[in-house]
Design goal:
This protein is of the alpha+beta class. It contains 2 helices and 5 strands. The chain has a 5-stranded mixed sheet. A hairpin with a 5-residue loop joins strand 4 and strand 5. Helix 1 packs across helix 2 (84-100). The longest helix has 17 residues, at 84-100.
Length: 132
């Protein structure tokens, strides 16, 4: 399996309104470093699994509507607790849609798996990954 992973970040505000989250129940900010890995079983005639430029552009486009936003106010998170895992799944779904729409170039069809990792800090991260 081959993979290309690209990185970006988002700065968000949100609350996690359940007792299990302790002080994070209140409104707070977070900066997530976001890694998106695109997996293929082979490479193209140029030796590429995925075009890094296209992957970087698509990840930035997916993250843009979240950056500097209060997730509690976004329709996509209404009625949901916007945990790291839930945010990772949302980003995964948006990236999967971009792959299906061939936004990662002519080799999009070769992408068979995506992994989205959100780094909360140097000590904690969460992710969602699945086959397409």
């Amino acid at each position: 399996m081959f993979a290309v992973e690209v990185r970006d970040h988002i700065m968000i505000a949100h609350s996690l309104p359940r007792p299990v989250f302790g002080p994070a129940q209140g409104m707070h900010g977070a900066t997530f470093v976001v890694d998106a890995a695109f997996f293929t079983k082979d490479v193209d005639e140029d030796g590429l699994a995925v075009d890094i430029g296209a992957a970087t552009t698509v990840l930035a486009q997916v993250l843009k509507p979240l950056n500097y936003q209060n997730l509690d106010e976004l329709d996509v998170f209404k009625g949901r607790v916007s945990t790291t895992e839930v945010i990772a799944r949302y980003i995964f779904d948006e990236l999967a849609a971009a792959v299906a729409a061939k936004h990662l170039g002519p080799g999009s069809y070769r992408i068979s798996r995506i992994k989205v990792t959100l780094h909360e800090s140097h000590a904690a991260r969460g992710w969602y990954e699945a086959d397409l």
